[in-house]
Amino acid sequence: MKRNLIIVTAVALMATGCKKILTPDEENLRSVEQMYTDPSYAQGFLLNGYRTMPGYYDNSDYATDDAVTNQLSNGYLQLATGSWTAANSPVSVWNNAYGALQYINLFLANTDKVKWAADPEVSALFRMRMRGEAFGLRSLYMFYLLRAHGGFSADGQLLGVPIVTEFQTVTSELNTPRASFEACLQQIYKDLDSADYNLPVEYVDVSATAQIPERFRAITQKTEAYNRVMGAFARQLFNGLISRSYRTRVGLLAASPAFQHASNTTTWAKAADFAAAVVDYKGGVNGLPANGGTFYTNTGEIDGLSNGSNPPEMIWRDNIQTNNGDQEAQNFPPTLFGTGYMNPTQNLVDAFPMANGYPINNSNSNYNAAAPYTGRDPRLARYIIYNGSTAGVGNQVIYTGSASGTDNGINIRPTSTRTGYYMKKRLRMDVNRNPASTTGKNKYQPRLRYTEFYLAYAEAANEAWGPLGTGTHAYSAYDIIKAIRKRAGVGTSNSDAYLEEIKSDKDKMRELIRNERRLELCFESFRFWDLRRWKAPLNESARGLNVNGATITPLVVENRAFQEYMYYGPIPLSEVLKYSNLVQNKGWQ
């Protein structure tokens, strides 16, 4: 059975019926042969792979125990409360990913025929770099497909997705089965190997021939030729460090409890090794960026970015947006002229320890329920607006209780919080949304940041070798977590006594690492996927806190309605109905 395809002039540039038909730009309605003499046109196919990458802030947090939203029609809210089906899946990446793979595979099939530059050495370097980018992007999309759609069939097979490494035409067999999860992993690792071979670790200008990496020096010994292709001008394109980062993401996913199966050969030790390659490149434990936890509000650093440079915390980022206030418009409290979309939960607030490092339910914490925000982990005030916090250009005091007398109070208006909290992370407090004097600021969205990979190492190393084990590396899970908590300002008054108490207990360290990951990466679209790969409870009710002076009232804000099979996302129903060889994940209809 063949999928119906649309031929776009002589190029036959289309996507499979199983993988959403593309609508190409008008300038691409040309023959494939024109790629060979027009390198900008050829590169356009590769750029399509960048253009449709999943965004970093997808707000899937709304469907977790970390947040709810006041957008009652939001897809993630509906997903979490019983409307997630194979026909209606906000987390599906199937169509976009396979559409992007069509462009990437067409590009790879034709790169050898393109005259990239008049200088043959420069042309050869461009060919290497762009092929490396394409292999990297192909692995990226396969990772997102595997994360969203990998899972177990009804008969217990651990399955991935169909592997597509060639441009599909009207004569291609399109009714292809899902490959095994392991086969998908190996394809991703293979593509990342190809990316590593063809790309520098980072794009930096060199001043001497000896600084050109050896494999590129075999092509050219001219610094100006190397810099033209592999230098700073190419920053924010896929590079070798990004490749290491995605290898880590893949390894961590594969080693996690949800994907344990005899056919899966990725171990926790392998995942730790992958993460260590990123951590080592940054300089080990001492290389953890000092201000990485406040990347979104390091205003001087953000405003000073130019020429594609990265802050110390960033491995990869999106382009700078100038005079921007979109995140603030969406998430500021109403009195700051925002619509308060992201409402952190009491569940998340309770996950922040005390400043002395002890969890609030520990007898040594000195937590006072009558003053719930006093003496807490400094990250709580940095990431969440709670009753009595200040926010905005005028340091306005925000009162969130239902009797506060302001629009910021619980459920006062459709734009008010439902939980008693507003998100502060991701936002610049020097943005002004007042219609009388609106001002935006420079912004960027992360794609990869170092803290994620320090946490990935801690998680994998603890599972592989215990809290204090190091494998072949110079640091342990304990060392990483100690550095992260010290940076946050946690346990600095007592040498982090709680961490010292549990540092030999693998299970307690696992709990702490997962909690540190929850805090450090909150509102960054990790929690939804972390809960699933850990096979952690999904149905914890989202709670809030109504604070009106001395009267503090706990609230149940939203109940979750996830089923056991929802640890794994579905194959889109439309594809299963069309193609008999596509097996659905267990439980999905």
TrEMBL record:
Predominant subcellular localization, coarse grouping: membrane
Q: Which Pfam families match?
A: SusD-like_3, SusD_RagB
What are the entry keywords? Cell outer membrane, Membrane, Signal
Lineage: superkingdom: Bacteria
User: Membrane: present as a keyword of the record?
Assistant: yes
Q: Which PROSITE patterns match?
A: PROKAR_LIPOPROTEIN (PS51257)
Q: Where is the SusD-like N-terminal domain positioned along the sequence?
A: 59-204
Family per record: Belongs to the SusD family.
Name recorded for this polypeptide:
RagB/SusD family nutrient uptake outer membrane protein
- Per UniProt, residues of the RagB/SusD domain are 312-588
Q: Which InterPro entries match?
A: SusD-like_N (IPR033985), SusD_RagB_dom (IPR012944), TPR-like_helical_dom_sf (IPR011990)
Q: Where in the cell is it found?
A: Cell outer membrane
